[in-house]
Amino acid sequence: MKRIAYACALISVLLLSACGSRADSGNSSNAAAPEQGAGASVVTAAAEADGGTTTTRSPNPNDNIDYSHSNLKTIYLAGGCFWGIEAYVERIIGVQDVTVGYANGTGENPTYEDVVRGDRGFAETAEVKYDPARLPLPELLTDFFKVINPTSVNKQGNDVGINYRTGIYYTDKADLPVINEVVAKEQKKYSKKIVTEVLPLQNYYLAEEYHQNYLDKNPDGYCHVDLSVLDQVNDKPVKVDPSLYSRPSDAELKTKLTDAQYAVAVLNDTETAFSNEYWDNFDPGIYVDVATGEPLFSSSDKYDAGCGWPSFTKPIDPDVVTYHEDTSFNMVRTEVRSRVGDIHLGHVFDDGPEDKDGKRYCINSASIRFVPLADMEKDGYGYLTAAVK
């Protein structure tokens, strides 16, 4: 179906080109998908002719992430025509690499012609290598379900055939309970039964080279996936796992910290404005708890408030700080402390930038440590690089 439609569409494009015209309109999706975001979409005559969409493809955010120190895992996802699935999944932050091929069929070394005949039972599949520290499997699978119709049997978009079935194929048995839990949650969204198959990977054969990164090579090519969903998928709040950090004893902190750091962090002192380490530092990176290393703030949320202390519009994760009433010095203020370390960080005020919710987190340099963007990967904070703009 895809090949026939594409050939017809190509003829349409040639005819339209001869007339010097091109059709433009908003995109559509055959899978149940959220409302389109800010990313504009363009449907060319080729895509319009076969019912697919050709969306403006944004740069791949993963190209700017160093995965050399990551413990990558692999999962195999079948979601209809693999051109669109590849273009979508490879742009989800946390995905290191995607190839497309043919999975869970009979016989060896199938060609595309073998697969579309359907008699060998292969599914068009994307091999997805991802960093679970940045992109946990439940999150990746939930993102996958956003662009498929999991209740449709052997059909996605306008493509019909057993090779267009949906499936999740795993190589690690430990992934099965996770997959089943995600499928169960997705089932609650549908009245029809989900038919996406969940099976061990039996085989996977890399597809022909012209299929790899097809939509990057052919921007006007057929795509049944609404790529504007990426606007929402990649705009997720950062979550920091508190179990990764622990608070040293006060005696250990006395040895670990300088006298000035201990006075501020443990004894609730305040450092001098305009003469502390980070008040005028605007290099890209993150700021972590000086006692535990737990991430607290991102340079992307730092601004010059003119007060002489590091100022931020928000924490990197709302849960990494706690709030306490402070009535010292005959004032009523809101103290900010770190979650795991429970050290004094500073105070939060309501005189911050109005377009950033009006908050100003006034933080002592002595209570935080700066990790430059270039060092985040090797220091174990690579999963937060997307939070540093």
From TrEMBL:
<feature type="signal peptide">
    <location>
        <begin position="1"/>
        <end position="23"/>
    </location>
</feature>
<dbReference type="Pfam" id="PF01625">
    <property type="entry name" value="PMSR"/>
</dbReference>
<dbReference type="GO" id="GO:0005737">
    <property type="term" value="C:cytoplasm"/>
</dbReference>
<dbReference type="InterPro" id="IPR011057">
    <property type="entry name" value="Mss4-like_sf"/>
</dbReference>
<comment type="function">
    <text>Has an important function as a repair enzyme for proteins that have been inactivated by oxidation. Catalyzes the reversible oxidation-reduction of methionine sulfoxide in proteins to methionine.</text>
</comment>
<dbReference type="GO" id="GO:0006979">
    <property type="term" value="P:response to oxidative stress"/>
</dbReference>
<dbReference type="Pfam" id="PF01641">
    <property type="entry name" value="SelR"/>
</dbReference>
<dbReference type="InterPro" id="IPR002569">
    <property type="entry name" value="Met_Sox_Rdtase_MsrA_dom"/>
</dbReference>
<protein>
    <recommendedName>
        <fullName>Peptide methionine sulfoxide reductase MsrA</fullName>
        <ecNumber>1.8.4.11</ecNumber>
    </recommendedName>
</protein>
<dbReference type="GO" id="GO:0030091">
    <property type="term" value="P:protein repair"/>
</dbReference>
<dbReference type="GO" id="GO:0008113">
    <property type="term" value="F:peptide-methionine (S)-S-oxide reductase activity"/>
</dbReference>
<comment type="similarity">
    <text>In the C-terminal section; belongs to the MsrB Met sulfoxide reductase family.</text>
</comment>
<comment type="similarity">
    <text>In the N-terminal section; belongs to the MsrA Met sulfoxide reductase family.</text>
</comment>
<feature type="region of interest" description="Disordered">
    <location>
        <begin position="42"/>
        <end position="65"/>
    </location>
</feature>
<keyword id="KW-0511">Multifunctional enzyme</keyword>
<dbReference type="InterPro" id="IPR036509">
    <property type="entry name" value="Met_Sox_Rdtase_MsrA_sf"/>
</dbReference>
<dbReference type="GO" id="GO:0033743">
    <property type="term" value="F:peptide-methionine (R)-S-oxide reductase activity"/>
</dbReference>
<dbReference type="InterPro" id="IPR002579">
    <property type="entry name" value="Met_Sox_Rdtase_MsrB_dom"/>
</dbReference>
<feature type="compositionally biased region" description="Low complexity">
    <location>
        <begin position="42"/>
        <end position="56"/>
    </location>
</feature>
<keyword id="KW-0560">Oxidoreductase</keyword>
<feature type="active site">
    <location>
        <position position="81"/>
    </location>
</feature>
<feature type="domain" description="MsrB">
    <location>
        <begin position="250"/>
        <end position="373"/>
    </location>
</feature>
<keyword id="KW-0732">Signal</keyword>
<dbReference type="InterPro" id="IPR028427">
    <property type="entry name" value="Met_Sox_Rdtase_MsrB"/>
</dbReference>
